Amino acid sequence: MSRICFTLQVDPARLDEYRARHQRVWPEMLAALAASGWHDYSLFLREDGLLVGFLTTDDFAAARAAMQDHEVNARWQAEMAPFFLDLDGAAADRAMRPLDEVFNLAAQLGAGAGDPI
Q1: What pLDDT does 115 receive?
Q2: Domain boundaries, the chain
Q3: 54 - beta bridge partners?
Q4: Between 3.30.70.100, 3.90.105.10, 3.40.50.970, 3.40.50.720, what CATH number should domain 2-100 receive?
Q5: pLDDT over 70 at 19, yes or no
Q6: Quick one: which H or E segment has residue 31?
Q7: Stretch 19-23: mean pLDDT, rounded?
Q8: 70 is catalytic
Q9: Helix (H, G, I), strand (E, B), or coil: what is residue 26?
């Protein structure tokens, strides 16, 4: 299972509305994410609009592609597009900037790297 972390930039002037929209995500969008292989998916929002997303999935490229097959995703992306900055014309789900994982405590402990010196 891959761990994916990504960033996007929410317009700081629209943070309250962005938060409110995510209090009750459409049930069909939630179902599409789960069916497409998005597990343990969370979003974290900083006060300057930095959005950090985290999920686990077997195959991130496949999970992203699978979402394109759900009609609800196109509607959701259209609803959310005005909240984001710097998308350069792409939908937010296509503009995600995945980060390289440089440390994972569980992985290192499991490999014995956490043994005391």
Answers
A1: 57
A2: 2-100
A3: 5, 42
A4: 3.30.70.100
A5: yes
A6: helix 27-35
A7: 97
A8: no
A9: coil
